[in-house]
Here is the input.
Amino acid sequence: MTNNPETTSGARSLHRSIGLLRLVSAHAAEGIRLAEICKRSGMARTTVYRMLQALQNEGLVEQDAGNDRYYLGREAYLLGVAAESRFGLTDVAKATLASLSRISGDISLFLIRTGTHAVCIAREEGSYPVRTHTAQVGGRYPLGVGGGSLAILSACSDAEIDWILERNAEELARDHPGFPPAFLRELVAETRAQGYAVNPGRVYAESWGVGIPYFDPQGICRGSISLAGIPARIEPRIKEVVSVLKAELPHLQKRLYG
Here is the structure.
């Protein structure tokens, strides 16, 4: 049986459009310009513009006339609200991060795994007055890039890590050249040996992060929780930070799975 060319073409267009939607989602807070979308997607400007217009017509993305950046649209928000009733992660994430930031005073982050990437779905500011640039809600990162993301990658099997790094190789080379696959394998080995992931300013120079994974009842890693702050705040307190994260883990597991 041969594939219908129109069906194949339609599926390819849908796949590309979803890829663009994810790109916009990864820059939910600050927006993203057309030129940057073209660069990151590798598609021609006319193709990207046409697909973005279609997404705009459906309310999934919006373009701010003031700065020409693209943002997620109202319909994307409504779809997320509808999905939340099934997955219920937002309330769990908020409760978890509120506890982490209250106890530690640091910025806390809740990431979930989606395929070969990690997505930040919640962030909580701590009481420590000096802020730092770190993951924002909606940010999407190849597994291994960042403390929480590295915690997730390290919890995968070796065979799965091979698959993930192969799938992400082009994106890593283009957008994260400081994280070649060989280096990520070294970080995985280090993370497994110490039992937690540390990001000593590899993504943002003035932001350190420490993360640990969480698992479902079948032992599959579904995401991570992490704490972040400026180097002077996190570096001398890594053991303390890890203790806070590990103490919260049973409460997270209970909220998620009962």
